[in-house]
């Protein structure tokens, strides 16, 4: 005898299930299938897995549902893990001699359902110009006019196909990478030190810091100044926003200066708050920081103290209390450890949503829990690691010769499994070329 539960209690039960369990529930009968396929349930799963879903309107292609978006998007993400080296294209982009041509994606976030989107990057290919390139074709799609002074910093906002530049005279310019004229221009009185463009629930913004320790927030697309706050009495070295842009982390490497974390809403909605909400974290000489993916309030900091090369890691959870227009921000230390018995200096690090710290020396990859338990080691000597990328699904290690290794997080443990290596096609890297790989 088939038992029919009321829809509302059943939906409440379904709201506690993960994606795999929902798909199983949908197989029970027609009624369960309809309820388990609800856009309300699958939209929440999408927002949990990809934080930006609640900030960007999902473009429904051919009446695509949130369930379809989740299934296709997950399948495409895991396709990177199952790929083979021959599934990738390899292109070289020429750059001016002496330019560190760091590339930023500008073609939108992530993968498309039908796979027909193009991967486009924006990069600084000369002292006074930026350009966009189609990675698959390896061709330039747009180039800016020659600027009167050297461009110092470049950042992009893929959600709006916008690039932001700052030159050595601290002139900020906004580009849509289609037109020759900038969308908007603004200037700082003091030299710019860091730049970040992000998409928040209140709209797109640009965060800029100067050498006097001031943080400026400008509105996109007109670069109207929203707020200014003095963070330190000297320049800001690092600037990181949390995954959902709830927090802004700022630091200056100095023995007497502690990093600060600001509540983003208090910086954007100045009329609603009597003062910006912030707190200092008890940790000096901070080199780098990393917000934990899918854990909006958790951040891990790293410091390296010379001459003994003592490396320290600390992890904080941020908490917020709002009482009227008064806000209290606090950071609670949840884990810390030091590395004293190893050779080499840790140069890059990232943190997975499993609370695993991945860090690299010049020739090895190390994995620790946030409590300091050694989990894995990968040795590359004599190869030299250039960069490290960590996300909830993969770890990508790039080498000085242009090759890279792709790892995937194992489902039920805190370890990595190696997927494949993409080899540089040249024996020696060309000094004026930027090497790019793209998954077909």
From TrEMBL:
Pathway noted in the entry: Protein modification; protein ubiquitination
Name of a matching Pfam family: F-box-like
GO cellular component, one term: cytoplasm
Entry keywords, A to Z: Ubl conjugation pathway
InterPro entries attached to this UniProt entry: F-box-like_dom_sf, F-box_dom, F-box_SCF_Substrate_Recog, WD40/YVTN_repeat-like_dom_sf
Limits of the F-box domain: 1-45
Protein's UniProt name: F-box/WD repeat-containing protein 15-like
Gene source species: Mus caroli (Ryukyu mouse)
Gene name of the record: LOC110302441
């Amino acid at each position: 005898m088939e038992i029919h539960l009321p829809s509302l209690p059943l939906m409440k039960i379904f709201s506690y299930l993960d994606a795999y369990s929902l798909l199983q529930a949908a197989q029970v009968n027609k009624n369960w299938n309809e309820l388990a396929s609800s856009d309300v349930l699958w939209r929440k799963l999408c927002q949990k897995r990809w934080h930006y879903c609640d900030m960007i309107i999902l473009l429904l292609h051919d009446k695509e549902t949130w369930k379809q978006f989740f299934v296709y998007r997950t399948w495409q993400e895991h396709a990177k893990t199952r790929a083979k080296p021959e599934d990738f294209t390899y292109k070289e982009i020429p750059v001016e001699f002496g330019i560190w041509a760091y590339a930023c994606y500008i073609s939108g976030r992530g993968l498309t359902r039908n796979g027909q989107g193009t991967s486009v990057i924006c990069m600084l290919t000369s002292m006074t110009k930026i350009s966009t390139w189609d990675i698959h074709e390896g061709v330039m799609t747009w180039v800016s006019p020659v600027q009167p002074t050297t461009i110092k910093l470049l950042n992009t906002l893929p959600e709006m196909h916008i690039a932001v530049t700052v030159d050595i005279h601290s002139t900020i310019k906004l580009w849509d990478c289609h037109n020759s004229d900038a969308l908007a221009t603004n200037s700082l009185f003091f030299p710019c030190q860091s730049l970040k463009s992000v998409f928040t629930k209140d709209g797109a913004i640009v965060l800029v810091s100067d050498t006097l320790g001031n943080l400026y927030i400008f509105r996109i697309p007109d670069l109207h100044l929203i707020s200014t706050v003095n963070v330190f009495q000297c320049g800001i070295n690092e600037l990181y926003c949390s995954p959902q842009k709830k927090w802004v982390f700022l630091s200056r490497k100095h023995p007497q200066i502690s990093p600060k974390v600001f509540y983003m809403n208090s910086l954007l909605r100045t009329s609603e708050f009597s003062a910006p909400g912030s707190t200092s974290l008890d940790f000096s000489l901070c080199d780098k920081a990393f917000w934990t993916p899918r854990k909006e309030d958790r951040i891990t900091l790293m410091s390296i103290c010379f001459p003994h090369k003592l490396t320290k890691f600390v992890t904080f959870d941020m908490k917020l209390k709002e009482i009227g227009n008064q806000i209290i921000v606090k950071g609670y230390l949840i884990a810390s450890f030091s590395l004293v018995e190893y050779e080499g200096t840790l140069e890059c690090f990232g943190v997975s949503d499993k609370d695993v710290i991945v860090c690299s020396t010049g020739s090895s990859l190390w994995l620790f829990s946030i409590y300091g338990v050694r989990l894995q080691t990968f040795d590359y000597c004599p190869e030299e690691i250039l960069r490290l990328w960590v996300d909830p699904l993969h770890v990508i290690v790039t080498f000085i010769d242009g090759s890279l290794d792709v790892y995937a997080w194992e489902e039920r443990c805190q370890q990595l499994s190696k997927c494949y290596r993409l080899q540089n096609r040249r024996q020696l890297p060309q000094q004026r070329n930027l090497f790019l790989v793209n998954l077909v």
